[in-house]
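Structure tokens please, single chain.
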Amino acid sequence: MRPFSPVIGGGAGVFAGAAMGLTSLADRLPRTRSEMELILISFSKHSKTSAGRGGLVRRTATAFGLALSLGLTTGTAGADPAQDLAVLEKRVNGDPERDDALSYLMVQVTNHEPGTVPEVSWMAGRLGFDRRSNGQAVLPFEYRTMLLREGAAARAQFLGQLMVADLDGDWTITREEMLATLNSGDGRASAELFLRGDTDANLVLDFDEIREVVRASSESRSYGRNWTRVYTLAQLIDFDEDGLLTGDEIGRAWRAAQLRAGR
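Here you go.
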């Protein structure tokens, strides 16, 4: 097996520690039969109330979320909001992206009822840590792998657009296959990638050209401001800097922001 080598956004290693985040994720996956049975029981319960492909996705996400949430703590006992606020402000230290992320946290806090701390799941979703299709947060939140997952999704999207023209499945796209796909009315995106990837201009896209155009297209894809803010905010309020955002840390950040807002 080849070693994992992430390539995203601005090239390899955009965020230090992302690969380490993958290792910590693997460490939290079920390792015993009893843990796996617990997840399967949860999956079975949700399957009775969900149907179709969308239901399968939701049930899988629920079961996976259970695996990641074993041992989750959500309390804020013992945390000093003043000390936490000092940590946050020190980390911002004039950095515009972190300042924007902290400002976003402040907006959410000031729009909430003064003096109260909402449920962790609500806070997590409100701040953008809702990486499931049903809008619920999976905690601990593995933010170091966020852009790796986004990059993988981008590569999958471009590869899917291109490979609809590989009519015989040989991982080579010919001019004739491209024209047939265009004539079917479903090949505009494929044709654009075909022309971009045909670097030797022989009107045949071989495996290496397919891989390269998918890689280049995914790297040139811009990541939205909101996505960057979510990552930056997670990094900012990860008090122990372990790459995992817990319910406890979200609650601590919320209380620190309340103190800053005088609420």
